[in-house]
């Protein structure tokens, strides 16, 4: 089974260019990758969340460098902190998270790394998909869930909230399907506390960015 971060990154990749449509430098991807890590720790019963805080349950490492790094920071805190606090703290590590996710997907033979040059001079790196079945399965699961009245599994609500925060449903669904499903997407995305914080954080950061942009 792929992790939340791996599924999210596959959805972010452009199948033609092998490059992410949004990268870890973008607010949406930064926040969603951190949300994916926190969501994974929750399902591994290392942390728990209430309406706005993260509580440590078990500081035992899980054997994954990214998850263990986040867990060590959380376990080092003397008290439970807001979800938004850990989101902001861990966003600085989004490039580290992205690199680890890419390495995992390459090891699993889902992606391959290609180094090329643009105009024979400028180096560029691409990650074309080798096994498209994983991506197709993710998209099918999401489509089937969104276009039905099915009750989602707990892991599905986390993934829906992260995918929604990145705006990927507009790529997965047709324009008509997306318009018809906006209320259901919003409903499912609100069911996960971490996902809600991801979305709110993106909105807050984007609003702040707009406010400091020069008028002209």
Structure overview:
This protein has 216 residues and is mostly helical. It has a single domain, classed as yeast vps74-n-term truncation variant fold. It is built from 10 helices and 5 strands. The protein has helices at residues 4-12, 27-43, 65-75, 83-90, 94-107, 132-146, 154-166, 169-172, 175-189, 193-212, and strands at residues 47-49, 53-56, 81-82, 114-118, 122-126. It has a 3-stranded antiparallel sheet with strand order 1-2-3. A two-stranded antiparallel ribbon has the order 4-5. Helix 2 (27-43) packs antiparallel against helix 10 (193-212) and helix 7 (154-166) packs parallel to helix 10 (193-212). The relative contact order is 0.16. Residues 209-216 have low confidence and may be disordered.
Describe the secondary structure blueprint for this structure:
Blueprint: H1 4-12, H2 27-43, E1 47-49, E2 53-56, H3 65-75, E3 81-82, H4 83-90, H5 94-107, E4 114-118, E5 122-126, H6 132-146, H7 154-166, H8 169-172, H9 175-189, H10 193-212
Antiparallel strand pairs: 1-2, 2-3, 4-5
Helix pairs in contact: 1-2, 1-7, 2-3, 2-5, 2-7, 2-10, 4-10, 7-9, 7-10
Q: Main beta sheet, described?
A: 3 strands, antiparallel
Total of DSSP H or I helical runs spanning 4+ residues: 10
How do the strands line up in the largest sheet? Answer: 1-2-3
Instruction: Summarize the amount of helix as a percent range.
Output: 55-70%
Low-confidence stretches: 209-216
Count structural domains. 1
* Strand/helix succession: HHEEHEHHEEHHHHH
Number of strand elements:
5
Report the end-to-end length measured between terminal Cα atoms.
Answer: 49 Å
Mean pLDDT: 86
Please compute the radius of gyration using only Cα atoms. Answer: 18 Å
């Amino acid at each position: 089974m792929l992790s939340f971060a791996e599924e999210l990154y596959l959805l972010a990749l452009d199948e033609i260019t092998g490059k992410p449509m949004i990268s870890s430098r973008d607010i949406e991807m930064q926040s969603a990758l951190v949300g994916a890590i926190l969501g994974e720790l929750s399902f591994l019963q290392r942390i728990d969340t209430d309406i706005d805080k993260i509580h440590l349950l078990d500081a035992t490492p899980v054997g994954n460098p990214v998850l263990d790094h986040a867990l060590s920071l959380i376990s080092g805190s003397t008290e439970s902190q807001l979800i938004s606090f850990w989101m902001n703290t861990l966003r600085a590590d989004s490039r580290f998270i992205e690199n680890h996710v890419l390495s995992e997907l390459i090891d699993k033979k889902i992606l391959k790394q290609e180094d090329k040059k643009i105009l024979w001079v400028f180096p560029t790196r691409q990650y074309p998909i080798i096994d498209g079945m994983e991506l197709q399965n993710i998209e099918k699961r999401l489509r089937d869930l969104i276009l039905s009245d099915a009750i989602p599994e707990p892991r599905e609500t986390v993934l829906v909230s992260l995918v929604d925060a990145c705006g990927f449903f507009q790529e997965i669904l047709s324009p008509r399907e997306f318009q018809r499903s906006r209320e259901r997407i919003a409903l499912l995305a609100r069911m996960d506390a971490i996902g809600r914080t991801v979305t709110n954080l993106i909105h807050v950061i984007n609003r702040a960015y707009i406010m400091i942009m020069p008028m002209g």
